[in-house]
Design a protein that fits this description.
Mean pLDDT: 97
Number of strands: 5
Structural class: alpha/beta
Low-confidence stretches: none
Number of helices: 6
Bound molecules: 4'-phosphopantetheine
Radius of gyration: 15 Å
Oligomer: single chain
Largest sheet: 5 strands, parallel
Amino acid sequence: MTTRRAVCPGSFDPVTNGHLDIIGRASLIFDEVIVAVLINKSKSSLFTVDERIEMLAECTAKYGNVKIDSFHGLLVDFCRDRGIQVIVKGLRAVSDFDYELQMGQMNHSLAGIETLFMPTNPLYSYLSSSLVKEVATYGGDVSTLLPESVNARVVDRLR
Ligand code: PNS
């Protein structure tokens, strides 16, 4: 029987409770979930790729079938190399839909890879890593939006 493998791709700078909600739900549907951190040297980030991988590994250890990796270049090439059949994306609001649909269609036409859109838990529908960083930069409390260890690292980094 083939292993049903899905990828949750993103920048994860840093991972939020919204990401973890999607990763955890995907882990119940697929045999294996690979969380793939995009290496994007042209985008400035709060955490290095290694730090992001470390935080993701800590926060997803409880799921058992989730692995963390990184990639650069096209996501479909990463999927092909690792035998991944499905891309899982969380949809927070209608505003996410246009671009996600476009990417899903492009990825399907490039490599026949399917995209599964998962509605975000409404608790996290306003949540994004960039907003969390902005709020934390100005001293706002984001502790309910991040895993405890990630919140500690964000506070420490921005101190
Ligand atoms: O967390 P992000 O930054 O919103 O994630 C975006 C990501 C990594 C999912 C997207 O930019 C991506 O897939 N990049 C890889 C490059 C690629 O395959 N581009 C073509 C997309 S159709």
